[in-house]
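Ops channel
N.P.: pipeline sanity check, posting one input/output pair.
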């Protein structure tokens, strides 16, 4: 998924889960770029995200996600023995377009060596609660994501040992 591109998102429609194509990214207030992530720890405090967190929660299914390490190498993460992961998200409408952001949280031990943040991940059994249950919201925002499997095509090697 790239900012401003379309992706299939799961949201609530008439008390059932439904799928819809939405664009990734909320426009920034001053029109300079897109916000593609929202921090789970502050989402209820930020004016840009508060109403969506309270009333327009969604789920973004994906096979995997990736982060860039310090050397800008792409490192991929996926769940062991599961073809789909479910990322918590929020959506809203801007200029007639439905748009979404992905919630992030502090990285767990699987991801922390690569990046300090990661998507807030949901289990399949939590999807309806995330989308519909307002009482579940605060607990979900504090979730620690499950362990992930890390892979990457290559890792940049240094000819010189790091001297600190």
């Amino acid at each position: 998924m790239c900012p401003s591109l379309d992706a299939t998102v799961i949201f609530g429609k008439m008390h059932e889960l439904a799928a819809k194509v939405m664009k990734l990214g909320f426009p920034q207030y001053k029109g300079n770029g897109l916000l593609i992530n929202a921090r789970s720890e502050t989402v209820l405090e930020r004016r840009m995200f508060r109403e969506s967190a309270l009333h327009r929660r969604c789920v973004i299914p994906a096979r995997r996600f990736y982060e860039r390490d310090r050397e800008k190498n792409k490192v991929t993460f996926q769940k062991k023995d599961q073809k789909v992961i479910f990322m918590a998200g929020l959506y809203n409408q801007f200029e007639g377009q439905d748009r979404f952001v992905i919630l992030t949280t502090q990285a767990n031990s699987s991801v922390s060596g690569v990046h300090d943040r990661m998507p807030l991940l949901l289990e399949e059994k939590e999807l309806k609660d995330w989308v519909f249950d307002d009482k579940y919201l605060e607990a979900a925002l504090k979730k620690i994501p499950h362990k992930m499997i890390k892979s990457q095509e290559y890792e940049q090697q240094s000819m010189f040992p790091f001297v600190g």
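N.P.: looks fine end to end. The mean pLDDT is 88.
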